[in-house]
Amino acid sequence: MLQFLFKRLLTFVPTFIGVTIISFAFIRLLPGDPILLLAGERGVAPERYAELAAQFGFDQPIWRQYLDYLGGIFQGDLGISFTTKRPVLDEFFTLFPATLELSLCAITLAVIIGIPAGVIAAVNRGKFFDQALMTTALTGYSMPIFWWALLLIIVFSSGLGWTPVSGRMSLMYFFDTPTGFMLIDSLLSGQEGAFRSAVAHLILPTVVLATIPLAVIARQTRSAMLEVLGEDYVRTARAKGLSPLRVNGLHALRNAMIPVVTVIGLSVGTLLAGAILTETIFSWPGIGKWMVDSIFRRDYQVVQGGLLLIATIVMAVNLLVDVLYGMINPKIRK
Amino acid sequence: MALLEIRNLSVDFKTAGGKFRAVDNVDVAVDKGDLMAIVGESGSGKSVSMLAVMGLLPWTATVTADVMRFDGQDLLKMPARKRRQIIGRDISMIFQEPMSSLNPCFTVGFQIKEALKSHLGLDRKQRHARAIELLEQVGIPAPEKRLSAFPHQLSGGMSQRMMIAMALACKPKLLIADEPTTALDVTIQAQILELLTDLQKNTGMALILITHDMGVVAETVDRVAVQYAGRRVEEQNVVDLFDDPHHPYTAALLAALPERAHNRLLPTIKGVVPGQFDKIDGCVFAPRCQFADARCRAVPPKPAGKELGDALCHYPLIKGQPQNKEMSA
Amino acid sequence: MTDRTAELEPPAIPAQPKPPGPLKEFWNSFKENRGAVIGLCIFAAFLFIAIFAPWIAPYDASEQFRDALLQPPAWQEGGSWQFPLGTDPLGRDMLSRLLHGARFSFFIGIIVVSLSLVTGVVIGVIAGFSPKWADTLIMRVMDIILSFPSLLLALVLVAILGPSLINAMIAIAVVLQPHFVRLTRAAVMSERARDYVTAAKVAGAGRFRIMFLTVLPNCLAPIIVQAALSFSTAVLDAAALGFLGMGAQPPTPEWGTMLAEAREFLLRAWWVVTLPGVCILVTVLAINLMGDGLRDALDPKLKRS
After folding, report:
1. Which residues form the ABC transmembrane type-1 domain (chain C) (predicted)?
2. Band (C112; pLDDT cuts 50, 70, 90)
3. CB under 8 Å to A292, separation ≥6 — which residues?
4. A161 in contact with C, Cβ within 8 Å
5. Shortest Cα–Cα distance, B217 to chain A (Å)
6. Does residue B264 have a pLDDT over 80?
7. Would you say the C-alpha torsion C116, C117, C122, C123 has a positive or negative sign?
8. CATH of the domain at C52
9. Mean pLDDT computed over every residue of chain B
10. Residues of C in contact with A144 (CB under 8 A)
11. I need a surface site. Which of B203, B206, C72, C305 has the fewest CB within 10 A?
């Protein structure tokens, strides 16, 4: 197991280097002069130009620039946002909890509904429930989620008035956010109704963001279960006279989970891609919206830093999934 | 009263090519402490009939029977929940592939103790003690350590011992062993068979051994039922069967045993078991039978009666000679 | 089993029907799947509309009717059969725009899939046949691309290249192509060890010939399935980029772009928001249904979702 972990960590290093090269290359690949781009619309005086070039190291050879960039990364220096003048890393950590909260809620919803749905569909293979469920799952999988979000807003926010349209918290409440998670902070604040407001703001974005992972998990669980249900050990479990719940939900599902866990891990990338759309539509102040806004504001230091951080998160989660995979698969565990 | 009594059992499978009858009007009767074998080629429906008793057939199968009774209880009319209380406690079964029959994700200890918990309601300590006792019973060294092993850490023979321990957990009245040694090395085969017969003697349970190997039958069981193409063609006690088989198929099977061959060339039965698309009007064995005539090909035979081992044949053999042949001529 | 019985007995029917060819066999198992057939029908209709849109559509996609702004569909109060699905905020006929939109989506799908398929397969085959270091290098690069969320990478690429439909398509192709590389490489690796490849080598076939004419045709099944699924991803991602303002630019009647333009009329005019989305959903769903059917028919072992 340790050896497996070590090997896996070794592949992490070159991939990470590659990601830094890509995010480094990003600003240099932009058409036009990087300093003029960074300075924005107003333009700069020649002396200021030279100053900026020296500040960003653009007067150095390219390999030198890269090494400086890499050195900066290891010291936590990802540049400074042009719009807010704050370090990119600081901005990231202020906004990341919002995305994390939303993503965690979405993936929890997807797992809680997707796995049982897949199991039930597999056990009732070919029957009405299976067909209905799989049609729904494929529809969810094919859903343009930005449109789905608009539909839900039409129905639940403007039609029924049940949920707010945007943001994380009603303006009526104001409190400190020590954890950055609205659900927790609103409870800590002790203000009446704050928690309810947080939940109400979360519901629609969560549903939207969970849609595709939910469909993928349900489909994957079903096909993994179908494979496992034909195995000899499931027959053994039934031969013991165990209840269908125990046979399907424990003996079969435990084995079917091995590929499903991989899929759940892989949906983190999907989730972050989905967060870009979801956060933009619901004005959710997370890193997805931050990235889109920065692209439009041409705040390229932020785009560069965000790209690197998001890719690093995806890689870290993939690493975690591999470790988890080793833990639930006894053949690797040893 | 018989422990397990089955009359006119038929099993049909829905397949892409239509209905396929895997078991056709089979009778089985097993008494307490019986030691019998069901013998047949692959595809003869011998496993399917026993899986039907256990209720382990896939949903594509339809089971019909006049009587299917275990220990005085009607298995056919019983609700599923009640039936699950019998399966795994009073009747248990072990399978052909021990390696894949154990769940790779759980320790063998968990898998053995599971049945103890659900059927007998033993507490944790009792379960542990019983599991160790069981492993000792099936001859596994260092049982304490083995309980926490995962299936992939065990050899084939060891896995089959685990399966047997699991099957014995609730002291069943009937154990069905479906080709328990086919997937194992030859040296291990003998050990497992000996273990099964010893356990049968010591515990007094009934044992049904499903096999295709006449050699195994001779050394192990008391009584033999021979199945062919989903039908039971003959049933006798083992000594009489080997001495004087009444059905031509049994006779041909026995003649094919290496120990009994007199010629340099081993005799074989020509042809194969009829498949789903072979339509046969008369006796199912007629296409391969050396004694078959026009009547055999046209009219399905009826069982010949107790003294002739219920041989499903128009002209049952006595001492290798077909009887009643002249009548039809 | 049946073969052997046939040897023993004289065959009942002298002229046995020929076994079905591979195409026929594929079609037989494909049409078993009801969903796949429905998907195929919808896709055929979509294709028809994409080709003939200018002739079917009642109006030009950018023709504005200033006296009929935001007119509801015909069956609603205030609607008329002049504009069966209503008009958008600039008075353009929704139906015509949606029909023309099918053209763009189909165009996007075809171009993106061809681009990513060709580059992906070529790189995949090369990786499968290269020495270990080159293979590792190629796969690492693919890993790097895959560690960016697809939409984010596409967005950034468009930011570099400048927002337009063509650039959006290039960006999506770049993002989709690693999947083809991985798939092709895995298939090539498992085929390469087969006896027929050795036989071709012994017969003196050149390296290039073995790579693309001997091995590749036997790896096609999973690649075809991936191509179908990529088509739907391409349509979806292009619409998403259009929605974010980074894909096709107005007044292009691309479905995602139409949605973005209609966003502010969300509450006033349901049809301008709902209809383009329905078009995207139905198209993507049909392609995915077809992809599922293809997968089951071509390779029953490929039961991934």
Report:
1. 102-291
2. very high
3. A276, A279, A280, C155, C244
4. no
5. 25
6. no
7. positive
8. 1.10.3720.10
9. 86
10. 236, 239-240, 243, 256, 277, 280-281, 284
11. B203
